[in-house]
Amino acid sequence: MLPRIDLELARKSIVEGLKNYVFQVAGKKGGVIGVSGGVDSAVAALLAAEALGSENLHPVILPSLATPKEDVEDAFLVAEKAGVTREKVEVIEIEPILRCFDKALGPMTHMERGNLAARVRMSILHQRAYKYNSIVIGTGDKSELLIGYFTKYGDGGVDVLPIGGLYKTYVRQMALHLGLPERIAFKPSSPRLWPDHEAEKEIGLSYEIIDEILFGLFDKRLKPEEVSKQTGISMEIIQRVINMHLKTDHKRRPPPVIEPVIRYL
């Protein structure tokens, strides 16, 4: 069982840290964020609005054929709660762009097209960030980062991760703390890369279990056997999570520079 955290302290520290990074470190005027109607982007958007001011936050909705209409409405609700009027929220349909890729590249698997969709979305967000002299605010949480559940150079290609230090369990709690409705706080997580796409179904584990394992391994620094003993989770499942972390290590690192052997003549 994950311990409770001081949500208000976490909120304040994220807001101050994000404000300092955007304005002082990066020297930008604001932030661009993709809002999907899911809990991660909702929490990230509200924290960003508080940190940067709603006038400096540029929410963008990027639906495809895989995006349910209710997600779009929830994304508008989040933007409005962040202080951005419906009229100022950009909606950019990515399906016409994806169809151009379909024509150019030929048949793709749903995984190939889904990852392409994530990278198209990120390209648009970076274009908008350049336009507004802003940075791209990421919506990934600690659980997703540690198991590598994101598209490299897609939703992983951001400038800053305000909720990257919160496990999914805590993000859901933060959503309620910030006054978001339960239907958003507990909506099944999904990158919406293809129709009926749900994260936990694809991963094969609930985030509650994943978070318990990750907390034991990375926060408490326990050995896998100790995590199993304390949580009652089987070693087989714990090893699955460890393998996800190890196999996605490259996603969390910058590209390695292969250093040549230099001999000056």
UniProtKB/TrEMBL annotation:
Listed pathway(s): Cofactor biosynthesis; NAD(+) biosynthesis; NAD(+) from deamido-NAD(+) (ammonia route): step 1/1
One GO BP annotation of this record: NAD+ biosynthetic process
GO MF entries: ATP binding; glutaminase activity; metal ion binding; NAD+ synthase (glutamine-hydrolyzing) activity; NAD+ synthase activity
Domain named NAD/GMP synthase: residues: 13-255
Binding-site residues for Mg(2+), renumbered to this chain: 40, 144
CDD domains in alphabetical order: NAD_synthase (cd00553)
Binding-site residues, ATP: 34-41, 139, 168, 190
Chain residues that bind deamido-NAD(+): 119, 152, 159, 250-251
The protein's Enzyme Commission number: 6.3.1.5
Coiled-coil intervals, chain numbering: none
InterPro entries, sorted: NAD/GMP_synthase, NAD_synthase, NH(3)-dep_NAD(+)_synth, Rossmann-like_a/b/a_fold
Catalytic activity reported: deamido-NAD(+) + NH4(+) + ATP = AMP + diphosphate + NAD(+) + H(+)
Subunit record text: Homodimer.
Entry function: Catalyzes the ATP-dependent amidation of deamido-NAD to form NAD. Uses ammonia as a nitrogen source.
Xref: HAMAP family: NadE_ammonia_dep
This protein's name: NH(3)-dependent NAD(+) synthetase
Gene: nadE
